[in-house]
Design brief:
Layout lengths: L2 H5 L5 H4 L19 E2 L2 H4 L3 E2 L4 H15 L3 E3 L1 H5 L4 E2 L1 E2 L14 E4 L2 H5 L8 E9 H4 L5 E2 L4 E2 L1 E10 L7 E12 L6 E13 L3 E6 L7 E5 L2 E6 L2 E6 L3 E3 L7 E4 L2 E4 L4 E10 L20 E5 L5 E5 L10 E8 L4 E2 L10 E2 L2 E4 L7 E4 L4 E5 L16 E6 L6 E6 L3 E7 L4 E6 L11 E5 L2
Parallel strand pairs: 12-20
Antiparallel strand pairs: 1-26, 2-25, 3-17, 4-12, 5-6, 6-33, 7-10, 8-9, 10-11, 11-12, 12-13, 14-15, 15-16, 16-20, 17-20, 18-19, 21-22, 22-23, 23-24, 23-26, 27-28, 28-29, 29-30, 31-32, 32-33
Length: 439
């Protein structure tokens, strides 16, 4: 989840306790350290609590849209609007096993090479989802058009020197149209709506958002941010009226920091008892929400995974039930918006786990490789590894993967695994969005 933390990692086989060969679907575990189920009594204490956020944000969104300073659009309209141009295929070395039929796409040069370790700052990709999550058939459908689409999350940082860094100053989602073998996309700045009908509506940047993971589910989009699960709605995309650095509305003019679109938060859940309490990785009853994926095996579920920065195992993978009718976490509250309880949890033996996804039988876990695996990337950091495990069994290396692989997602309609990487190379670029067969 952080470039700095991954740069100083130490790859030690003893900490991973997994296979030392990057062969697709093969290998044998070096030690029986399982992807272990967490006891039910502990899992029952994991909760998502929305508080009153949906009510407050709803009033602010209504006020902004009534004010006329933004034009309300939906996902279909943005997908059809053109935008920036990417490229199909894998434009950089990935380390992915050729036996898994790797494919994917790349960003344009500016987004491939953006560098957050400069005074000007830059955007870093984190999460990936798509129409493969949004709808069971893998397409984003309306009455006339079915789109193959993807959605990526990014955070913005600057290195201003001394004691004045700017970390997670901004966050955005990128909506990608992959129809007809072409890649076009638009960035949408994530914003927090403010005010109400009596005070007038406005919005500001959703600051402090690392945008760790993202899942597109129906019209909803979930964005993980540590102890917060932010919720957005693709029926409320705001086309702004100017292209300025300003974020918000001033004098009847709207702007979203040089983006054409702003996406307002409609609500958020927390895993902690109060706003001032931090999430706790590995232990405790307030798990951190870092990577996200969708599990459509059985009742739909949102899968979160903890990034544990220490050179040790223990990051937890947790499944939260989703209500297909409300497209929100399941709750007994009659309003459809209330506290939701986790149903399943696991402890992972993978160091620096960056992503977790399941096809209903196997779990796929992105993180460090064991010692001796992952070299040859041509970069100062080795390739990452994607590991595969069944519950309560030891993981095995499934394949090496792009440097600093982040989130993973599973496309049940195509039986393929999707992933994204965050590595910075401000000269040639090194970022890809990739897909491999999940066998």
């Amino acid at each position: 989840m952080t470039q700095i933390g991954m740069r100083v990692r130490t790859l030690v086989a003893a900490g991973l306790l997994i296979v030392g060969a990057a062969v697709a679907g093969g290998g044998t575990a070096q030690a029986a350290t399982p992807f272990a189920a967490i006891d039910t009594a502990t899992v029952n204490q994991f909760t998502l609590d929305p508080g009153t956020s949906f009510t407050g944000y709803g009033a602010a969104i209504d006020a902004v849209e009534a004010g006329g300073a933004v034009h309300v659009m939906d996902a279909n309209q943005v997908l059809a609007s053109g935008g920036r141009t990417g490229s199909t295929g894998l434009c950089h070395g990935t380390g992915l096993s050729s036996s898994l039929s790797p494919t994917g796409f790349c960003w344009d040069k500016a987004d491939d090479t953006s560098n957050s370790y400069t005074p000007d700052g830059g955007w870093t990709p984190q999460g990936i989802t798509g129409s493969y999550d949004a709808q069971p058939n893998g397409k984003w459908d309306n009455q006339t058009t079915s789109h193959t689409a993807y959605l990526a999350s990014w955070h913005f940082d600057q290195d201003l020197g001394g004691s004045n860094p700017q970390s997670n100053a901004f966050a955005r989602l990128t909506l990608v149209n992959a129809d007809n073998g072409a890649i076009t996309y638009n960035h949408m700045l994530l914003v927090e709506p403010t005010g109400d009908q009596s005070a007038g509506g406005n919005f500001r940047a959703a600051a402090g958002t690392h945008a760790d993971g993202v899942v597109w589910y129906g019209n909803r989009v979930f964005v993980a941010n540590g102890r917060w699960l932010q919720v957005y709605d693709l029926r409320h995309i705001w086309k702004v009226t100017s292209n300025q650095e300003m974020v918000g509305i001033s004098g009847g003019v709207s702007s979203a920091r040089w983006s054409n679109y702003a996406l307002p938060m409609i609500g958020r859940y927390r895993t902690t008892a109060s706003d001032g309490t931090a999430c706790t990785p590995v232990t405790g009853t307030a798990p951190c929400l870092n990577s996200l994926s969708l599990d459509r095996s059985g009742q739909d579920g949102l899968v979160s995974a903890e990034y544990y920065a220490s050179n040790a195992a223990g990051g937890r993978v947790i499944r939260w039930p989703l209500d297909a009718a409300t497209t929100l976490p399941s709750t007994s509250d009659t309003s459809g918006v209330g506290t939701s309880h986790a149903t399943v949890g696991y402890t992972s033996p993978i160091w620096h786990m960056q992503g977790a996804a399941t096809d209903g039988t196997y779990w796929y876990l992105a993180g460090d490789c064991p010692s001796g695996v992952g070299g040859g990337s041509g970069d100062s950091i080795d390739y990452s590894c994607i590991h595969r495990a069944e519950p309560n069994q030891a993981p095995h290396v499934y394949t090496t993967s792009p440097v600093l692989t982040e989130n993973l997602g599973y496309a049940p309609s195509a039986h393929r695994l999707w992933g994204i990487n965050e590595r910075i190379n401000s000269t040639t670029g090194i970022r890809v969005v990739f897909s491999i067969t999940a066998t």
